[in-house]
Structure formats: C-alpha cells, structure tokens
Amino acid sequence: MILNGCLLCNVDQFKAINDEGMPMYQRPFMKGKLYIHFTVEFPDSLSPEQCKALETVLPPRSGQQLTDMEIDECEETTLHDVNIEEEMRRKQAQAQEAYDEDDDMHGGAQRVQCAQQ
Fold this sequence. Notes:
This protein is α+β, with helices and mostly antiparallel strands. Helices cover 32% and strands 21% of the residues. It has a domain at 2-58 and 66-84.
C-alpha cells in the first residue's frame, strides 16, 4: 500500500484512512476509518558507519521506476490528519446516545396482573 503524505508524518502523529477500518455493525459492506499511529524517532546525527549499516538493511535508493506489475499490486490511498482525542470524545458521545435511546424505547414485555376469577 502506498501512503500519500507519509513523508509528512511527524513524531507521534495519528492519521486515518476512510472506508478501510472495521465493518460497521449490521452493515458488513460499509467500513469505518482505519486509524494509524505513527511514532517515529529520528536520530540527531549518524556516523558514516551507521549510514553504511542502514544501506545494507534498507532497500536501494529509489532512482528507478516501479514496474507495471509492481504498480498493479499497489493500492493508493490518502491519509487524513486526525485529532484522536476529539475522535474518542465523539465516539463516546455516540455510544452514550445509543445507550440513552435503548432506555427511552417503550415496548418489549408488558406487565400483566393476575385477575381473580
């Protein structure tokens, strides 16, 4: 998956991808947001030996284009900035509303009193 904007990710940042999260309750073909928490720690500096060690474990620098087959296997998506605290408050409020609606519903079993015959 190619993530547009990934280079703009800062240390300890949340992003979201719409319609790639968990399926919605009683709507299996509709999906929510996929939340991604990026925690990146960059060193202040690297020695030449550390640079060489990284070059041995990382893929080669991208000076070449992807092949058509590699492009076909990629799924392009866009990351959106997320204020995770605000999202959590919103979801908590929605859950409370659903709970309150259950309390307000009239119906279900009715009480029956015994009658003398």
